[in-house]
Each structure stands twice: as structure tokens, then as C-alpha cells.
Amino acid sequence: MGDLLEKIKQEFQEIYPDSSTPRVFFAPGRVNLIGEHTDYTGGFVMPMALDLGITMLATPRDDGVYHLKSTNFENSVEFSNSYLLGNEVSLDKKDPWGNYPKGIVLELSKLGLELKGADILYSSNLPTGAGLSSSAAIGMVTAYGLSKLGDLQITNEELAFLCQRMENDFIGVKSGIMDQFAVGLSKKDHAIFLDCNSMEWEYVPLNLEGHKVVITNTGKKRGLNESRYNERRHESEEALQKLSELKPQIKSYRDLTLADLSLINTLMYPYKERARHIVTENHRVLEAKKALESGSLTQFGQLMLASHRSLSVDYEVTGRELDSLFQSQLEAGCFKTRMTGAGFGGCTVSLVIENKVEYFIETVRANYKARTGLDSEFYLAKSSGGVREIREGL
Ligand code: GLA
Hints:
Elements (H helix, E strand, L loop, with lengths): L1 H14 L7 E12 L9 E17 L4 E6 L6 E4 H5 L13 H12 L6 E8 L9 H16 L6 H16 L6 H8 L4 E6 L4 E6 L5 E7 L11 H18 L14 H4 L6 H23 L3 H17 L5 H13 L5 E4 L6 E7 L3 H16 L4 E5 L6 E3 L4
Parallel strand pairs: 3-5
Antiparallel strand pairs: 1-2, 1-12, 2-5, 2-6, 3-4, 6-7, 8-10, 8-11, 9-10
The structure holds alpha-D-galactopyranose (GLA).
Alpha-D-galactopyranose (GLA) binds next to helix 6.
């Protein structure tokens, strides 16, 4: 990993020969273990950060200009502080990555960041558009790194909210807080349990007893913008509105429990289904936390399966690829698996017995290819801490 960093540093010097030695920052991607499409309704989630992520090398400038490059993409991005002050920074729909840092600089400048530009190089080993939070990682690494360069006193939790504002207002995706929070506050060897209503959180040790966390990519790219993410969010809000008309005490999804399922079942499609997913998923996250704490992995696995089925049947965010992958994994004898992230393509997360990993990969690869014609990709996930400055190696 040290070698990799040396290579990126060299590349930085070649791109910016007049720059001084850059500072290095890293933000991980995340995989959500359970609690899907619950964050934006004030529910529970339990993700963990990955050792894959985005590295950012940066040096401050004094002419008010931001130069951005990435080792993963051809294009460069450039904008200036004066442009920002006029709030004229605009979204370039064709650019796959530059809008995130642009939006972050805009948000940071609103908080009084005094930075007169920077030379920046990004390098990512996180697959983009795979549901592993590449957008939260580029947002958080930029926000964290620039706040350090500009001596802005701000906590990682505040940075997570700042990144969420950037995604909601600048990019136009009405995402919840889970990804930015996991990227900002995770701890190695732990999942992070977050109550998105009170914003209280707790680290849960990953007692995985001889299992590996395997992420499988469907190979179907998903852009949150193009997806029906915002539509689902809207439907869930409408479902809540209908429920509170029926029972005025219901003000949020957290006022609902499994005992309210009979009331929920009186709604029409799609409100019944969307609300049913959210209420049952919140319950599953609480049960999954207990299962992880007590080392009951079989129970944890059952909750994962139920989560996937609910996301497939009730929330309708899986689609052919994720459902085929899930089915292939069950047929490979893995009963601790589910889709992860927003859905509509992207990845699954599975707990696989260590000495079965090879068999799992081979069987799932072949079975999924036969079903869909698509090539899957596998990552053995290692947990990691949240966004940070790297002083030596990676
Ligand atoms: C995306 C969003 C998150 C969350 C998940 C679904 O990753 O960014 O806020 O809503 O989808 O659980």
C-alpha cells in the first residue's frame, strides 16, 4: 500500500510540478449490513466502513483557484473562489466526479472556510456506482481535507451533514445521512449502529466467528440520480401522511411498530408496501444488533434474508440483477446475504464461512452469469476507520 501511495505522490508532482509536498487524506467506502431505505425516515441503520476508498492529495494555493484531477478519470476540473462567491458554481451533468468537490467547496465557503484554492489529485480503488458510497467518500474526503488545509474547526459529524446538504441541494439526490455518517465516523472491526432520528450512535463489535464479509457486484451500474431513489423517498413520505390521517398520533415512522401492521395493510399500493418495509426493517435492525452482540450469526443471516425479500417485494428496489444474484447465493448454500445500498443494481453483502469463500465465488459467478449473462465481481471486505489524514503508507 505504501508503494501505491508513492506512485500517486509521484503522479501529483508530475501534474503539479510547482506545488509543494501534498497532505494526504483518505475516506473509506461503506457497506450497509442492514437497515436499508430507513435513514431518510428517521430509522435505524448498521453499516461498516471498508478499507477500499478514495485518497486525496492536496496542497493549498494562494491565487483562489482550485485544480482537480483524478487518476481514475481523464477530465480535469477547475474553478475559482470568486466564481464561488457569486454562488454561480453550476452542476456539469456530463462530469462523473467533479461536481462533488465543487459542491463541497461551495458548502465550506458558506461556513467561512478561508482557503485560497488548492491543487488536488484523487485516486480511488472503490468501484463507482456500485452502492458502496463512492459519492459520500469523495464528498467526505474533500470536506475533511480542505477543512484541515484551511484550519476550519469542524467535527466529522458536522462534515457528514455538510456532505448530505451538498448531495441533496447541489447534486439533487435526496439521500439520507447513513453514508456520510459511516464514512465519517466508523471504527475498524466494528459496525456502526445509528439512530437517524436522535442521531445517537454506538459501535457494535463485528463478531463474525469464522465468516468473511463478501461483497458481490452485480455489474449493473446505478446512478442514484437516474434511479427511482427520490421517488421511493416521496412515496414513503406520502404513506406516512396517509397513516397520520388515519391515526393522528402517528407523526413519524418511529411511532409505528409491528403492532401497526394491520393499520398499514389497509393502505393501497404502493403505500402499504413502502410503509410495511420501513416498519419491519427498523425492527430487523434492532434484532440484528442483538444478534451480532450475542454472536448469533444464524439469526443475523435470517434477518438479512428477510431484509432482502422486503426490499424486493415491498420496496421494489432490487430488480432482476440483484434478485438473480441473491438467488444464486442461496443456491450456493449462503443463507446470510442481502442487497446493500440504494438498490436498482449495485451490490449484495454476504457473510460467508471462511473455508467456503472460494466455492461461493466460483458457484455464484457461474450461476449468475448463466441467469443474466453478466459478470459479477467479488470483494473480500475488511472493516476500516472513518475519514482521516494519512501520514505514512496507506
Ligand atoms: C443510498 C443513500 C442512503 C440510504 C441508502 C439506502 O446509499 O445515500 O442515504 O438511503 O441509499 O439505504
